[in-house]
From TrEMBL:
<protein>
    <submittedName>
        <fullName>MOSC domain-containing protein</fullName>
    </submittedName>
</protein>
<dbReference type="GO" id="GO:0030170">
    <property type="term" value="F:pyridoxal phosphate binding"/>
</dbReference>
<dbReference type="InterPro" id="IPR011037">
    <property type="entry name" value="Pyrv_Knase-like_insert_dom_sf"/>
</dbReference>
<feature type="domain" description="MOSC">
    <location>
        <begin position="28"/>
        <end position="171"/>
    </location>
</feature>
<dbReference type="InterPro" id="IPR052353">
    <property type="entry name" value="Benzoxazolinone_Detox_Enz"/>
</dbReference>
<dbReference type="GO" id="GO:0030151">
    <property type="term" value="F:molybdenum ion binding"/>
</dbReference>
<dbReference type="GO" id="GO:0003824">
    <property type="term" value="F:catalytic activity"/>
</dbReference>
<dbReference type="Pfam" id="PF03473">
    <property type="entry name" value="MOSC"/>
</dbReference>
<dbReference type="InterPro" id="IPR005302">
    <property type="entry name" value="MoCF_Sase_C"/>
</dbReference>
Amino acid sequence: MQFVRTISVGRPQDKDWAGIGRTSIDKRPVTGPVAVHGLGIDGDEVSDTQHHGGPDQAVYAYAREDLDFWEAELGLPIRDGLFGENLTTEGIDVNALEIGTRLRVGEPGVGVLLQAVHVRTPCNDFKGWMGESGFDPRSWVKRFTAEARPGPYLRVLETGTIAPGDSIEVVHVPGHGVTIRDLFVALNTDRSRLPDLLVVDGLLPKVRAKAEEFVQSTAGSLPPAEPVA
């Protein structure tokens, strides 16, 4: 079964290690139904609006299975919401979702329709939060990046109300084969894969621009094509 295990929200807190002096990464679970609108979940407030939030980063999802992986790696318990996710999922590999995949959470007409459109990029705030939470923050950003388990940012296509335990149904797969994990790798660890993103219809404009810029910058360095006999 694929379902939402936990829904978590956070509000700005003053932190010396945060880039702008405050952060909302400390997400805590809600116990009942919660409304979801175009900019996210009621009760969840973005601190750094320059780098977070907006329609294309309205809801952040992370799999319990990936949290379990990090528990084993780090040797300490990791509660739902600790990675700053709004939705802690179970039974679905959210990193294997194709970009543009649509997910129905909850019942039609009551729940929401979400679309996987972007990836979380680890930052120094994440590092600082891990340190405050009792983990060794040294090289955390590099370590998280190397594992390529980023979790997707979800756009809200249909608003509604969801609750912990709601089912997750994949209702549309674009079919291009480029996954959330592929997007993360292309943007963070292997720029040679940026051109692969261009097959994605509806790719975020800033991501498409980066991929096109890479193609243009490398065009002159490519070997000439072999003549056709």
